[in-house]
Amino acid sequence: MLLAVDVQYRDDRGFVAGVLFESWLSDSPARTVSACVDGIGEYVPGEFYKRELPCILELLGTVDEQIDCIIIDGFVYLDGNERPGLGKYLFDALQGKHPVVGVAKTSFAGIGEQYGVLRGDSQRPLYVTTEGCDLGEAQRNIAAMHGKHRVPTLLKLVDQRCRSDASL
User: Fold this and answer.
1) Which 3 state secondary structure label does DSSP give 151?
2) Dihedral, CA atoms, 62, 63, 69, 70, nearest 10 degrees?
3) Any idea where the domains of the chain sit in the sequence?
4) 2-167 is classed in which CATH architecture?
5) pLDDT one-digit tens code per residue, 12-46
6) Where are the beta strands (DSSP E) in the chain?
7) Fewer CB within 10 A of the terminal residue: the chain, N end or C end?
8) pLDDT tens, position by position, 72-114
């Protein structure tokens, strides 16, 4: 089972959503999950992971399925392979038990074009970074995911789900 996660904030609350799906080619979720975490601190530049990581870990506590890979909205490595981002901190918090694939919609200073994946007719790449799995394979999997547009269907769904929860 694959799990895509995303987090939104309102005040000091984090709203995290997850979409579980059977394969990289799935067009619909097997199940969706969500959680709310109170007491999320203010954003500190360069320490984004400190807000997101507790939310994702809380969500993982609600998942009974065997997870083969976790897909996050963001970077595993900010520069592609050395400077840790949210995904690397998640991988380490899970003691390397689950591969993590980061899919970021915007570039980060220092990220090379080799991390870009074009989908659909878009000329704007998604940036894919990984820990615990092969980068090339992860890029092919993201490129093959369901959906005609730049952002795959299920990644768009998890984004919509956490935004919806945050607006309640």
Assistant:
1) coil
2) -20
3) 2-167
4) 2-Layer Sandwich (3.30)
5) 899 999 999 999 999 999 999 999 999 887 777 66
6) 2-10, 13-21, 31-38, 69-73, 100-104, 116-117, 126-131
7) C
8) 999 999 888 889 999 999 999 999 999 999 999 998 888 989 9
